[in-house]
C-alpha cells in the first residue's frame, strides 16, 4: 500500500502488487505524491493580504485599510485537508463622522 507524507495526496492507485511474472501491477501508471492545494484566498475588500502561495503549509496574513476593522481570521494556513484554517476575513467600515454644531441642533 502506498502512502504519502502529510500535506501530500496520492495520485494513482493506492495498492500495487507483485505479480507472478515479477512485474508490479499497474507499472505503466505513474503513482506519485502531489502537494495539497488549498486554492486562492482573495484579499478582502478594503484590505490587504500578505502571502501568495496556496499549497500545504502556506500562510496568509490579512490587514485592513485605515478606517476599517478586521473581522474573521488575521492569520490563515493551508492545512493537510486542503482547507484554509480560520474563518473568512472581512474588513468592516467604522462610522467616523465629526458632527457639526448645525447637525446637533434640533428644531421644534
- Derived structural class: mainly beta
Amount of beta strand? 25-35%
| Tally of individual helices | 0
Helix content: under 10%
Number of domains: 2
CATH architecture of the largest domain: Ribbon
The rough form would be described as: rod-shaped
Your description of this structure?
The protein is mainly beta. The chain folds into 2 domains: 1-35, no CATH class; 36-92, Complement Module, domain 1 (Ribbon). It has no helices and 7 strands. The strands form 3 sheets. The protein has a 3-stranded antiparallel sheet with strand order 3-4-6, with no helix packed on it. Strands 1-2 form a two-stranded antiparallel sheet. It has a two-stranded antiparallel sheet with strand order 5-7. β3 and β4 (59-64) form a beta hairpin. The protein is rod-shaped and about 100 Å long. The relative contact order is 0.17.
What layout of secondary structure does this protein have?
Blueprint: E1 8-11, E2 32-35, E3 47-50, E4 59-64, E5 68-71, E6 75-77, E7 90-93
Antiparallel strand pairs: 1-2, 3-4, 4-6, 5-7
Disulfide bonds: 64-91
Keywords: Disulfide bond, Glycoprotein, Repeat, Signal, Sushi
Protein name: Sushi domain-containing protein
Give a short summary of the structure.
The chain has 108 residues and is mainly beta. It has strands at residues 8-11, 32-35, 47-50, 59-64, 68-71, 75-77, 90-93.
Amino acid at each position: 500500500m502506498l502512502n504519502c507524507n502529510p500535506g501530500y495526496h496520492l495520485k494513482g492507485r493506492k495498492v500495487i502488487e507483485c505479480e507472478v511474472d515479477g512485474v508490479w501491477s499497474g507499472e505503466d501508471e505513474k503513482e506519485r505524491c502531489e502537494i495539497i492545494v488549498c486554492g486562492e484566498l482573495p484579499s478582502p475588500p478594503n484590505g490587504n493580504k500578505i502571502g501568495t502561495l496556496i499549497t500545504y503549509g502556506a500562510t496568509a496574513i490579512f490587514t485592513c485599510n485605515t478606517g476599517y476593522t478586521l473581522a474573521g481570521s488575521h492569520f490563515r494556513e493551508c492545512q493537510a485537508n486542503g482547507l484554509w484554517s480560520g474563518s473568512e476575513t472581512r474588513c468592516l467600515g467604522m462610522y467616523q463622522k465629526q458632527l457639526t454644531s448645525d447637525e446637533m441642533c434640533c428644531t421644534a
